[in-house]
Specification:
The complex is a heterodimer of chains A (416) and B (131). Chain A has 416 residues and is mainly alpha-helical. Among the domains of chain A are: 82 residues, no CATH class; 105 residues, Serine Threonine Protein Phosphatase 5, Tetratricopeptide repeat (Alpha Horseshoe). The longest helix of chain A has 27 residues. Chain A is elongated. The N and C termini of chain A lie far apart (52 Å). The relative contact order of chain A is 0.06. Chain B is an alpha+beta fold. In chain B, the strands form 2 sheets. Chain B has a 4-stranded antiparallel beta sheet. In chain B, β3 and β4 form a beta hairpin. The chains are: A mainly alpha (416), B alpha+beta (131). At the A-B interface, α7, α9, α18 and α20 of A face β2 of B.
Chain lengths: 416, 131
């Protein structure tokens, strides 16, 4: 809410309240799309009025009241239109007094809302946008700015997302036990994508960019609070914290990427690291092991090394072995090849890359070339490394990565 | 993923465009307006701009102390960027589909054009972890 001159406390309060208020309004009016618009209007009204008039005694009741008033105004005009067509509906059927609506919190609807916004029927960009608005309490303008698209385009994306939720016929309740695992993994995937979207080279301090990574961490933290015993959720939160801890060390003064082994580890955020390690330790002791947990555990091993040379690669390799058994993801196979090279030497790593060549899923992917180049350099094949760094640079669609890969080509060419 | 769709053409091509009838021009622009409106509704539209005619184009190079040296005489066959669209789509195939819609806009007498559209992905500023 960068444009609204809100202090952090108020901004945080509004974001926290957004899904709770939305839950109440949906329960009252049984209209997800309409309620979502009404709550958005109430949040914007609060952002304008509260700095001038002070935060009300009960901010939650204030937001509910304003949102419900918007809803009733909208329904009244809708009713007037429909009454001209049919006399069957009465106002009483639709409208209740605001006092009746403003009952105390019985349950936190944040979880139900997350399941709805990350419904598998939605396209990924739609799910990301709707989650940030309905659960994160961000405005359309803020989301548009974060994704670098015009506000009108983002508004359409959100409205289409709501349409998809509506036509999917998903009821406003938690998914059944049978659906739960699949639906929860869709939620986690959306949160992970929001995090990654924000985990980019900063565009400089003068650019007021919404921090999507922080927002993803906040939402995942809220989810972890609601499902403290779920190891996937705890694992994802730990992974985000441990990754985010390296943010400052990840880029140099000219936005150039700095790989893990060259980072200034003094810049790592120790607060986030210890929180992440504590979380992952707590979830690992709970028994069932999930993919996010293993990824977080790998990040934790890196965090524990004060120098790159001290990295416990055998442990990382063991964790990748587990992860490889759990998921059939080629990116995991790629990282497993790197860990293998670090423990058993580059030729073993390169041999595993030929398995990936046959697998075919990463054919033409720049990361396969980049890893091959890295391992060839380790093996002392300078010209091979140059050729594959060059291929990777041609294939990547990320500007900071291309600059990094071209720098490797230059570095090796000077040596050759 | 964002893609830029570059509409390119030669001076000769632009000159032939000047011979279109009023109705041809209206039909063509109605097509572009409808593509734009559809892209906005689908949440994929980012930007579009048309550029001034090639006759006004200048190529600038830095001279001594960064003084601009301008060059404005171009061979007839040179390809110019005439305008561009930026779209935010989920797949490359979708970007090609949109490019084909733009390429095949109605020309003189309603015949379908087949303008070359150069499709290029816009590099992201984000990146994954590197080895």
């Amino acid at each position: 809410m960068t444009d609204r001159y809100l202090d952090h406390g108020t901004e945080h309060l509004l974001r926290e309240l957004a899904p709770q208020v939305l839950g109440v309004v949906i329960r009252r009016f049984h209209d997800f799309a309409g309620a979502e618009d009404a709550v958005q209007e109430a949040l914007i009204a609060a952002a304008f009025q509260w700095p001038k008039e002070g935060v009300p005694d009960s901010p939650r009741a204030w937001l509910i009241q304003v949102a419900c008033r918007r809803m009733t105004d909208h329904l009244r005009s809708e009713l007037a239109r429909r009454r001209r067509e049919t006399a069957l509906v009465t106002e009483r059927d639709y409208l209740a007094s605001v006092a009746e609506i403003d009952s105390p919190v019985e349950h936190d609807d944040t979880l139900i809302l997350l399941f709805m916004c990350c419904h598998p029927a939605l396209s990924r960009p739609s799910a990301l946008a709707l989650t940030l608005r309905a659960v994160g309490g961000l405005t359309t303008a803020e989301i548009a700015k974060a994704f670098l698209v015009p506000e009108a385009t983002m508004a359409q994306r959100i409205s289409r997302a709501k349409q998809s939720v509506k036509s999917s016929g998903t009821p406003f309740r938690l998914p059944t036990d049978q659906e739960r695992t699949q639906r929860l993994s869709a939620v986690l995937h959306v949160l992970y994508l929001i995090f990654n979207e924000g985990y980019v080279a900063s565009a400089g301090p003068q650019v007021q960019r919404l921090e999507l990574s922080r927002e993803a961490i906040r939402l995942t933290r809220a989810l972890h609070h609601l499902l403290p015993n779920d190891s996937e959720v705890g694992g994802l939160l730990a992974l985000m914290l441990l990754t985010n801890a390296r943010r400052k060390a990840r880029t140099g003064p000219n936005e150039e990427l700095i790989p893990l082994d060259k980072q200034d580890r003094a810049l790592w955020d120790q607060g986030e690291i210890s929180e992440g390690i504590a979380l992952i330790t707590a979830t690992l002791s709970k028994g069932s092991i999930s993919a996010y947990q293993l990824q977080a555990a790998i990040a934790a091993v890196h965090s524990e090394a004060t120098k790159a040379e001290d990295t416990d690669w055998p442990q990382i390799l063991a964790l990748y072995e587990l992860l490889k058994h759990m998921s059939n993801n080629p990116m995991v196979m790629l990282n497993h090849a790197i860990a293998t090279a670090m423990v058993r030497g580059p030729s073993e790593g390169l041999r595993l890359l030929t398995v990936l060549d046959e697998d075919g899923r990463l054919t033409g992917h720049h990361r396969l070339d980049a890893v091959r180049a890295y391992l060839l350099e380790m093996a002392g094949d300078c010209s091979g490394a140059i050729a594959h760094y060059r291929l990777a640079a041609e294939r990547t669609t990320s500007l900071p990565e291309r600059n990094y890969l071209m720098t490797q080509v230059a570095r090796l060419s000077e040596r050759a | 993923m964002k893609y830029i769709l570059l509409m390119t053409g030669t001076k000769e091509g632009v000159d032939s465009y000047k011979a279109w009838s009023e109705k041809d021009i209206q039909t063509h622009f109605a097509h572009l307006t409808s593509v734009r409106s559809d892209l906005s509704k689908s949440g994929e539209f980012v930007a579009t701009e048309g550029l001034s005619m090639p006759q006004q184009a200048k190529v600038v190079r830095a001279g001594k102390d960064y003084a601009p040296i301008t060059d404005g005489v171009f061979p007839e066959a040179k390809e110019f960027v005439l305008g561009y669209w930026i779209v935010d789509v989920e797949t490359a195939e979708r970007a090609y589909e949109i490019a084909a819609l733009l390429s095949g806009g109605p020309g003189p007498g309603g015949t379908r054009l087949s303008m070359p559209i150069e499709v290029r992905q816009i590099m992201s500023r984000g990146s994954g972890e590197l080895p």
